[in-house]
Design brief:
Bound molecules: flavin-adenine dinucleotide
Strand order of the largest sheet: 4-5-10-6-7
Largest sheet: 5 strands, antiparallel
CATH architecture of the largest domain: 2-Layer Sandwich
Radius of gyration: 20 Å
Order of helices and strands: EHEHEEEHHHHHHEEHEEEEEEEHHHH
């Protein structure tokens, strides 16, 4: 069971930061509480009693998003359901809807924030690979001499290991800023112990743009999660594909490269097999999102014969 002495619901960032800087040791921040509640209820943390819980869900400065040129600033309280329903986010962040559609279920998606997913820093957190492909930067606020000060850092550097981040004492994450990728096809692949309501064993995010002829990879971005302590961006495979003619042979060759990067200690052979298939499927699905025909199973088989 999860209990606490004091439950606070600040409505302004300054108020939340003051409460957080004064909270006794062992206190916790919560946003959607979809990580914290199961942690306590399932007994992973035993019966959990916290001195203070600070619920960020009503903090005005953390709500909504803003498009700033070719970047989108997502407030820390943006939840996964918004990536499925908001037409601007669907248009500008083309791999987030396919990530969100396999994320938990309808109820959890209404509560679960992208930022909570990043701060939780699970090696298999679904939001991490898409945010890497979107060049995500996290914004962190703290009090300095009573004033709000912020710093930003790439999400790739913010996550340092399983459950570990660069979040400092007294800091609250206020936003994630990502590239706006209009005109790209996006996709997300995920596999776990079962198809739905499952935490990924391996996941893969892709963004693909073709040249005006539709025959050349103008740009490709790829990232993997669940293969080691942190999600990784596959820059070398992106470089191999960018500017090249789009053939399925090339994609099949590229998909073989990342298998040696599987650094997980469990189910290594399985993860290696999955990773290759995911790269291929992620690129194909991103192209299908741009209007390309989906290859038949026979065409796929022929490449691997
Ligand atoms: C049934 C179920 C299914 C799930 N399915 C998936 C799934 O498919 N894929 C997946 O990746 N995850 C899944 N999860 C895990 C969870 O939903 C996600 O990690 C979610 O994104 C966490 O967001 P939250 O807002 O609920 O975070 P919380 O539980 O509120 O917080 C998570 C952590 O982040 C910290 N935090 C939150 N907001 C801030 C902030 N603004 N600043 C600083 N620290 C902050 C909290 O202190 C806590 O340590 C599932 C959970 C459940 C219960």
């Amino acid at each position: 069971m999860l209990t606490c002495d004091t439950y606070l619901m600040p409505t302004r960032l300054g108020e939340a930061l003051h409460a957080w800087s004064e909270a006794p040791a062992g206190s916790r921040l919560v946003a959607g509480a979809t990580d914290i509640l199961p942690y306590a209820r399932e007994g992973r943390g035993g019966d959990v009693h916290l001195p203070t819980m600070i619920d960020l869900s009503r903090v005005a400065e953390l709500q909504g998003y803003e498009v700033r040129g070719n970047r989108v600033r997502l407030g820390a309280n943006v939840v996964y359901q918004q990536f499925l329903e908001d037409p601007t986010l669907v248009r500008l962040l083309p791999n987030m809807p396919s990530c969100a559609v396999w994320f938990a279920d309808d109820q959890i998606r209404q509560q679960a924030t992208l930022v909570g997913n990043l701060v939780n820093a699970s090696p298999a957190g679904d939001g991490l690979p898409p945010v890497l492909t979107l060049n995500g930067e996290i914004e962190l606020a703290r009090l300095e001499s009573g004033q709000i000060a912020t710093r930003t850092m790439p999400v790739a550097d913010f996550i340092t290991g399983p459950g570990r981040t660069e979040l400092r004492d007294g800091e609250i994450a206020t936003a994630v800023t990502v590239d706006a990728m209009e005109g790209y096809g996006g996709s997300f692949q995920k596999v776990g112990m079962r198809r739905s309501l499952v935490i990924s064993a391996v996941c893969c995010a892709a963004l693909v743009k073709t040249d005006p002829s539709g025959r050349i990879f103008e740009d490709v971005r790829l990232a993997l999660g669940g293969i080691g302590p942190r999600p990784i961006r596959l820059y070398d495979i992106e470089d191999m594909l960018r500017g090249q003619e789009m053939t399925r042979e090339l994609v099949a060759r590229a998909s073989l490269l990342p298998a040696d990067r599987v650094a997980s200690r469990s189910r290594v052979a399985y993860r290696r097999a999955v990773v290759s298939g995911f790269i291929e499927a992620a690129i194909e699905d991103a192209l299908v999102a741009l209007g390309a025909p989906k290859p038949t199973p026979e065409q796929r088989e022929a490449l691997h014969a």
